[in-house]
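input
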Amino acid sequence: MNFDLLIRNGEMLDGTGAEAVRADIGICGERIAAIGDLSQADAKTVIDATGQMVCPGFIDVHSHSDAYLLIDPRAPSKVFQGITTEVCGNCGASAAPRLGGAQLPSDWQDKPFPGTWSTVAEYRALFEQAKPAVNEALLIGHNTLHRGVCGYEPRGANPDELKAMCRALEQALDEGGCGMSTGLIYPPASAVPQEEIVALAKVCAAKEKIYTSHMRSEGKNLLEAIEEALDIGRKGGVRVQVSHLKTSGKANWHKIDAALEKIEAARAEGIEVAADRYPYTAAQTDLDIILPDWALYDGKAAVLARLADSKVRKQIRDEMLEERGEFGFSTVMIGSTEHPDNHTLQGMVLDDVAKQLGMDPVDALLHVIEKDELRTGGIFFGMCEENMWRILAQPWVMIGCDASLRAPDGVLSKDHPHPRAYGSFTKLLRASLDGQTVPLPEMIRKMTSLAAKQFRLDGRGILKKGNAADVTVFSPNETKEHSTYGDPHRLSEGIKTLIVNGTLTIQNGQLTGKRNGKFLE
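output
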């Protein structure tokens, strides 16, 4: 036998949850050609994996890299975690389709893209031209659709608009979208009735696509939000993914039992529902999410006008103080900033920012948001570590970074991301190897076949003959994350070999410069 690539002497975890076995893997072109004792075989390139674990390429089911894959197709923060596939377009925001007056999310708007696009087909053409290092499956963002058809006003679609949204979603799915995501905590979706989501979910169901949801609440109204997600699954007849399942705010930590019970009961009922999670107890999103819902409606100009009106600003301030009684401001950290005057505040807790600016925390927050023109990132500490590990241990919970790719150099190195962008998968590998969470075969299953099954990524997620040659090889002794909240732009360590569709992307722990990521339908 003669192969293009041959991985020898490794301990293979095939992704099914089975224990590791010693096996060689032979690759021809973009496919796995043979697995077993291949000691007598020849190959153009031989990888000696002695002392290393050989697994299917990891699948990041909750990513926001859609636009960034066009900018830095090396995807370094992801590939050095062993990720070979990203599911993008999460939380209701996707790079495509770009309809009407819908704008890209704020952190994408100022970036240098290699071309323009409107439809999923046009975005896909740019993706294939860039040939990123990872595969991508693209969810269609509900907020992206809604804003493109209905604008930024806080309302549901009228009947004609809903028909237009359904047609746009059908087209986007036909052009390669893998499902629809919602971000029901973000305006204008936060004002949209469930009926609108159900109508769109039915479009997904008809095409056997998935519905994923950043729910309306992950704290005070967590249980009601889970029930809504499940209800959409029932009424829409659609497969459901609960995004980044968590119990936010100490007052809500006790809801973990009821939350898990609701999902387990739905699964027993026959609803195909699962969830994802990252291994950190802080969330990250736009800092202005702290503002009252009504203050965030109608688009950026309207929000800034409200902040500039002293009477309205006081109303916003008062409501924030009342609402943050549950959390306070000491749990908020400034992430990425836009205005040069705010750059020194990155990575600082809001209480310290307030002292530096000589303001109360609530006023410091409003000051930073306004100066950055709503382009400030926020990192929010409010989760329970014990609950995090419980959620991660559930057999139906897979892994997602909840982050777009970053790089320690170039245009994507300038902001201040959450460490999950660089460390989610390697942190979990380390925790599993150290006995802190589920055993390694089960952890690998969560990162591979569980994700592939839920998102219908056929021919991936399991090492077997005929499947796509997406392979991650890591050193159990060296694997760990280095990214921190204070110093996030640090690559993970321990991924020795990464093969994407038969292309050697990382060899001996270094990028080869070769990329072969595919747009997956």
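quick obs: The first helix runs from residue 68 to 71.
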